[in-house]
Write a structure and sequence with these properties.
The protein is globular. The longest helix is centred in the N-terminal third of the chain and has 16 residues. By secondary structure, the protein is an alpha+beta fold. Helices cover about 15% and strands about 30% of the residues. About 25% of the residues have low confidence. The strands form two sheets. The chain has a seven-stranded antiparallel beta sheet with strand order 3-4-5-9-8-7-6. Strands 1-2-10 form a three-stranded antiparallel beta sheet. It has a domain of about 150 residues: Mog1/PsbP, alpha/beta/alpha sandwich (Protein Transport Mog1p, Chain A).
Amino acid sequence: NPNPKTLDPNLLPQPLEPSISKRHFVLKTASLFSTVAILTLQYPVPQSSAEAPPPPKPSPLAVVNTKSWFQYYGDGFTIRVPPQFQDITEPEDYNAGTSLYGDKAKPKKFAARFASADGSEAVSVVISQTNQLKITFLEAQDITDLGSLKEAAKIFVPGGATIYSARTIKIKEEEGFRTYYYYEFGDGVQHLALFATVNGGQAFVAGAAAPQSKWDEDGVKLRSAAISLTIL
């Protein structure tokens, strides 16, 4: 996009203050990522009015080998966790729903969530029903059922965000190849990498987020964590 637009300042998290507490930052990052990864913002990605020439073939993404990292197994997926990251996944509320008043368990926002020691960087996984992302009578079996890479950006990327990279990635599995969509985007304050696929009517979305200033240093590590998402 030759004329990238920025997000409405009223919709963006404010720049992080040096004295911000770890808990406040974790909650702030969770709010930003849940807004994106839980996929409630389905605005069109801004397009240039000018007709741009065909983009050049994207260069390979810079990633590191994650085989030595801790491997987390979740509900239908697995992901590699960067060293020194702590598990901050919301605990299951086993008592909810057992009271006389019929309280219902609060749905979990994240299927998995890990943060750096200072809470400034996070790696998360969200699982969502595909019929909540796109109205359809058919159960999505592949992420292409949600549209092309460009069309699906309207689901996975907030309108107005600057997209730095977007590509389709196919990974070989026992029964063939699985298609993933990768988006990397930001607003000048936060930088995010998002890796998504579909399996059995569910969308699995792995994301990594950090302040832009830290992404310049740790972006390769965070991107590698997001792309390590594997469906079981």
